């Protein structure tokens, strides 16, 4: 009988499959997507965040375990399993070398406004190149991969996995199961159970295949849930992006350089609260709370070259009033908002690479950093909507990546890795690159533990 069955085809699944195979197990990977679209959200990633004690060839300095944990606490506002988070961070120190040993190559980190040169390692060629390397390694080791292999049923008895049923009617039995099949962000009806009709206006940044089928099967079979169904990694993306699979190129990194208004031309949050990698993932939820789930980033010519643009060009006009007309907003209202903002801007030294002293005074909400008057024509805007990356409701696991059942007992032979269990670490919020950390670390752990369980 097969030793380890891995459901999923992204970073977490491949790390699990490789680790299990290297530990001597027979391994099969079931990927619901066609081969071209394999890899779930990993296809759209760029980097991962790992603790390290020294600068490396691709990182500019140390990033200690304590600093990593402090960053995690800040973005989650304390909503994390501390013991499990610290375990993940400690294990992450070995991941950069381990991932490289599996054929993944890294490039020098990006600097500037992303502020990631010291903390995050970037994949040479991006997420698809990373995936291709992992697939090559897995297949060379003898891991069997099936595509278009959607799991529609699980045979689980008293916390023990027995078999998976596929859409084509086949049944696959295995000694252990590793679930690495992502969240339910592409399941709009499931999102609407928590978000209501607003979810109809959400855009899904990643795979349309992440519908949460396996997650629901596990929870229905007595696995203990973790996380809030409304919590997710949600960023503000170009409103012109496709409904699914727009990926990283639809993300907008220009919020800190301008102001963000809703359809009534009102600001609703501090655009300069913190450095962008620690705050970009709150903007999806902020826009989701606005009327019709739409907002507009407004900036001027001075800021046009300071950020990576979206796939789509910004909307441009010679005046704020004309810009409003092109956005189908009230010209008088947008002009008034800009004049009020500009009047509140205080003198300072603008530096987009640090928390500078450019701020507003007497304005609600304030802009606490990078506040400059928006007055240099031409003027630009991007329309944005909530872009959901992945959901945080998932399966509870322990330090061995073993799922826990609702009665508090560990599962007999079921493990989880990646977005399907990310809610253990991410109760809310997000820091750039941490999704790949969760997937890699717990994927490797799940693969090793599953292989040893099958062998014993």
Automatic annotation (TrEMBL):
Keyword field contains Translocase? no
Q: What are the record keywords, sorted? A: FAD, Flavoprotein, Oxidoreductase
**Highest taxon, organism lineage:** Bacteria
State the Gene Ontology terms under molecular function: oxidoreductase activity
The FAD-dependent oxidoreductase 2 FAD-binding domain sits at 3-425
Q: Which Gene3D superfamilies match?
A: FAD/NAD(P)-binding domain, Succinate dehydrogenase/fumarate reductase flavoprotein, catalytic domain
Per its UniProt record, what Pfam families does this chain match?
A: FAD_binding_2
Cofactor needs = FAD
- Its recorded name reads Tricarballylate dehydrogenase
Species of the source: Roseiterribacter gracilis
């Amino acid at each position: 009988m097969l030793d380890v069955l891995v459901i999923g085809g992204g970073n977490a699944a491949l790390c699990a499959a490789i680790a299990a195979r290297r530990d001597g197990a027979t391994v099969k990977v079931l990927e619901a997507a066609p081969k071209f679209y394999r890899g779930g959200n990993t296809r759209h990633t760029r980097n991962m965040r790992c603790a390290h004690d020294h600068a490396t060839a691709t990182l500019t300095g140390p990033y200690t375990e304590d600093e990593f944990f402090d960053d995690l606490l800040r973005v989650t506002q304390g909503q994390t399993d501390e013991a499990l988070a610290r375990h993940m961070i400690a294990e992450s120190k070995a991941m950069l070398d381990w991932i490289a040993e599996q054929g993944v190559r890294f490039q020098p980190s990006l600097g500037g406004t992303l502020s990631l040169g010291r903390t995050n390692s970037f994949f040479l060629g991006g997420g698809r190149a990373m995936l291709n390397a992992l697939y090559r390694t897995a297949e060379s080791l003898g891991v069997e991969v099936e595509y278009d292999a959607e799991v529609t049923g699980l045979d689980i008895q008293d916390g023990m996995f027995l078999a998976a049923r596929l859409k084509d009617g086949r049944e696959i039995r295995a000694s252990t199961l590793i679930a690495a099949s992502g969240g339910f962000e592409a399941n709009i009806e499931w999102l609407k159970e928590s978000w209501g009709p607003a979810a109809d206006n959400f855009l899904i940044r990643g795979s349309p295949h992440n519908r949460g089928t396996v997650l629901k099967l596990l929870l229905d079979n007595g696995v203990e849930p973790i996380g809030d169904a409304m919590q997710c990694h949600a960023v503000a993306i170009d409103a012109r992006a496709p409904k699914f699979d727009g990926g990283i190129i639809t993300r907008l990194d220009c919020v800190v350089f301008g102001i963000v208004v809703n359809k009534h031309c009102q600001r609703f949050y501090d655009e300069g609260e913190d450095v962008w990698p620690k705050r970009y993932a709150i903007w999806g939820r902020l826009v989701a709370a606005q009327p019709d789930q739409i907002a507009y980033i407004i900036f001027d010519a001075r800021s046009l070259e300071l950020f990576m643009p979206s796939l789509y060009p910004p909307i441009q006009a010679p005046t704020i009033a004309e810009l409003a007309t092109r956005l189908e907003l009230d010209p008088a209202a947008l002009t008034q908002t800009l004049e009020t903002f500009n009047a509140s801007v205080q003198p300072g030294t603008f530096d987009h690479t640090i928390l500078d002293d450019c701020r507003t005074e007497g304005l609600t909400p304030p802009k606490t950093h990078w506040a400059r008057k928006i007055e240099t024509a031409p003027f630009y805007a991007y329309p944005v909507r909530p872009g959901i990356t992945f959901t945080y409701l998932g399966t509870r696991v322990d330090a061995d990546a073993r799922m826990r059942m609702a009665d508090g007992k560990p599962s007999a032979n079921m493990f989880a890795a990646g977005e399907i269990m990310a809610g253990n670490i991410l109760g809310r919020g997000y820091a750039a690159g941490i999704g790949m950390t969760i997937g890699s670390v717990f994927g490797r752990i799940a693969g090793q533990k599953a292989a040893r369980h099958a062998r014993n």
